[in-house]
Amino acid sequence: MDLNWLLNECNDPYQLERLFYVERYAWLSLSPDMCAVISLDGQFEDVNTHWEKTTGISREDLQGAYLMEHIHFDDRERALADMQKLITSDIGSTTFSFRFLCKDDKYKKLNWNVIFSPDHNAYFSTVHDPTKDENSITQLAYRDVLTGLPNRLALEEALPDVLTQAIDADTRGAILFIDLDGFKEVNDTLGHKAGDTLLVRAAARMNYVVGQQGTTYRQGGDEFMVVLPKSPDRAFAAGIAGQLVERLRSHYVIDGQRVNTGASMGIAVFPTDADNGTDLMEKADQAMYQVKRGGKNNFAFFGDKIEPQKED
């Protein structure tokens, strides 16, 4: 793609709109901070998923709202004047803070870094909560930016210790490899923002089911892992897996649309199926694909025989 041609010579509004959309989506998805795209009249056009954790306001509720409604009355004139200066003066960016109205009518002071983009005719803002403990680079490396779950790197680091603890406690452990069924269709029909919302909601459901009995990790894309460090028998792991399948097959409402998905899940047990983390994850992966071939939206242990679903 010739970016210079697109910006300077392309007369196709669709191609330009597509370029700006991809650029904006990447920025919102990859930032570890709260981010927002705000129109000239102060409306939240787009935000990422980090706002709910800090303010209690979901992305769906914040999108379409107006910034002025969330600025404390005593801070409103100064904050809006600072944003207006980005348009009327030569400064490229500005930084300010004000009390932001969160859920349940509580105010929280947030730090804002804002630029105005003439190409997008909108403000781009990154927002940070100064009361929050600063995450080190190391901590961020082990955290999935979108869902907030530990990531694959964290899993690979933690798994050897988990298995060692299972040996010391003379118990079994289990890994559940989870792949969301129908995620691609949501992305293709409703867009990437809806897909991101689905991933965040699914991650929250998994965390709710697993609770203190294990840890949920995001592998990447629509794949997740659940590690159960103390799984005394197959029935215990099957019970967790069954609850996860039921929770993940329940419909979601995203941007006013009813979305139905499911989950295919493979389970590998330590030390029965493998005596190390790498092989254990591979066996769980193989079991998950058996479920996919058998009709999806279910779970199976490594070694279970599942008949492939016949096509009509």
Mean pLDDT: 85
Q: Outline, from the CA principal axes?
A: elongated
How many helices does DSSP assign?
11
Strand content: 15-25%
Strand order of the largest sheet: 2-1-5-4-3
Taking the alpha carbons of the first and last residues, their distance comes to 42 Å
What is the count of β-strands?
Answer: 12
In the predicted model, the low-confidence regions spanning at least 5 consecutive residues are 1-19
The CATH homologous superfamily name of the largest domain equals Reverse transcriptase/Diguanylate cyclase domain
Percent helix, as a range, is 40-55%
CATH architecture of the largest domain: 2-Layer Sandwich
Secondary-structure map:
Layout: H1 3-8, H2 13-30, E1 34-39, E2 44-47, H3 51-55, H4 59-62, H5 73-88, E3 93-101, E4 107-117, E5 122-128, H6 137-141, H7 152-168, E6 173-181, H8 183-190, H9 192-210, E7 215-220, E8 223-228, H10 234-249, E9 252-254, E10 257-259, E11 262-270, H11 277-293, E12 298-301
Parallel strand pairs: 11-12
Antiparallel strand pairs: 1-2, 1-5, 3-4, 4-5, 6-8, 6-11, 7-8, 9-10
Briefly characterize the structure:
The protein has 312 residues and is α+β, with helices and mostly antiparallel strands. The chain has eleven helices and twelve strands. Helix 8 packs antiparallel against helix 9 and helix 9 packs antiparallel against helix 10.
